[in-house]
Amino acid sequence: MDKFFKLSERATTVKTEILAGIATFLTMAYIIIVNPQILSISGMSFSGVLFATVLVASISSILMGLWANLPFALAPGMGINALFTFTIVKGMGVSWETALGAVFISGLVFIVLSVTKVRTMIVKAIPASLRYSVAAGIGLFLTLIGLEEVGFIIYSPATVVTFGGITVHTVVFLIGLLLTVILVMKKIKGALIYSIIVTSIIAIIASKIGVSAGWIEKAIVTTPDSVFAMPTFDVFMKMDILSALSVSMIAPIFSLLFTDMFDSISTFLGVAQVANLVDDDGQPINVDRALEVDAVGTALSGLFGTSSATTFIESAAGVEEGGRTGLTAVVAGLCFLPFMFLSPLLSFVPAVATAPVLVIIGTFMMKPLSKLDWNNLEEVFPAFLALILIPLTYSITQGIIWGFLFYTLIKVFIGKYREVPVMLYIIDVFAVISLILPLI
Question: Which of 4, 46, 256, 424 has the smallest count of CB within 10 Å of its CB?
Answer without folding.
Answer: 4
